[in-house]
Amino acid sequence: IDLDPRLADPAAVLAAELASEDHEEWVRHTPNGRLIPRLKLLTVKCSPFVARPDAVYLITGGMGGIGRQVAGWLIAHGARHLSLMGRTVRECPERAAWEAQGAQIRTVAADVANADALVKMLADLDAEGLPLAGVFHVAGVTADQLLFRQDWPGFAQALRAKAEGALVLHQATKDRPLDVFVLFSSITALCGLAGTGAYAAANAALDALARWRRRQDLPALSIQWGTWEGSGMTATAGEELAAQWQAHGLMPFSPTTGLAALEALLSAPEVSEAIAARADWSRLAHWAQEEGSGAELYAELVPATDATRHSPLATRHSLETLVRESVAEVLGLTVTDPALDRPFGELGLNSLAAITLRNRLSGRLGTPVPATLAFNHPSVAAIVRFLTARSITASPAPAANRARIERMTESEAESHLTSLLAELESKSRR
Known about the structure:
With 430 residues, the protein is of the alpha/beta class. It has helices at residues 10-19, 65-76, 95-100, 115-127, 152-173, 188-191, 197-215, 233-236, 239-247, 255-266, 281-291, 304-309, 312-315, 319-331, 344-347, 351-365, 373-376, 380-389, 398-407, 410-428; strands at residues 2-3, 28-30, 33-35, 56-60, 81-86, 104-109, 132-137, 180-186, 221-225, 250-251, 273-276, 278-279. The chain folds into 3 domains: 1-37, no CATH class; 56-279, NAD(P)-binding Rossmann-like Domain (Rossmann fold); 312-396, ACP-like (Non-ribosomal Peptide Synthetase Peptidyl Carrier Protein, Chain A, Orthogonal Bundle), CATH 1.10.1200.10. A hairpin with a 2-residue loop joins strand 2 and strand 3 (33-35). The longest helix has 22 residues, at 152-173.
């Protein structure tokens, strides 16, 4: 819930929103009314990007896979001076070909979040009489880990490369007349795939910075990228995460497609943030519905028939069928596979898959189930027995939950919260 500081009575607005039966995942209240986000397809009249041959373009993460793709694209569009920044200087296989086209390539070994190093680099450019025309912030570090296992050093590392680096770039260049300031964000900032919490938070900061710069009349474009073939998240993620993204509807796209999207978005000066992804939006919406998180966001991209086709009440006739189908989907099996009758330990169900199964069942049942469900009840039959004993049915019950909470006394509510906190603390130590 985003409350505009100009609201006359933000506390009253917050109370009304919390009591609302309209379960939007994201809401913003301004003096002009209540706003909710919806994704829309963007149609752009693409015009060729023309780089300045007399100025420098800075690419952070410039020696990585995507950074080198952007460098080659800039040179093909007329750039003749590039500064490639990375934590370490790595060999660029394309460098000789770029220089043969007349480009001058500078490589800088520096942490993008190191303000002193960036200031020195800009001072060196000034000494050569070369203006800075554009910034492409591609640098990033993934810290894939389930949140309850994430430690602060890992989280901070992801924030430093993306979020802190972007702020340093902003501070160092805000008084320079840039033509472009492009932030390479990620679609994980929107849909928050399991294991990418730190990376998603870091990229969400880029989107916020782009909006803030636009309000200051500064150039900014934040692109929430999907998965590039052979580069970025796709190159560093394990097979399990890559398979998870594809199962949710995110397919990798070629560098040629990615660069075409970059050029198209640079042709739309009114756009400050956008998604560029090869996605099956119906599958993403279905997944968000099962996770109980932000399915409304896709309402204008997914026809109503698609949005309702996967309704648990329409397609699930029994608890056993629901559990069996959910386990099969998580493990990549068919629902008729005899292996589903075996214990999960024999099927290779790991902690990430267990959390995915818990989230999927919670979304389909419309009520929370324990995070340790698959470990305490390690088979389809055991889960069905457990859920049956709890009298869980495949229908949501948010109103009943709210009514039960409202009937609690203060001491009962405090006791309930204490017990939940103790349970969470216990799980975080496992």
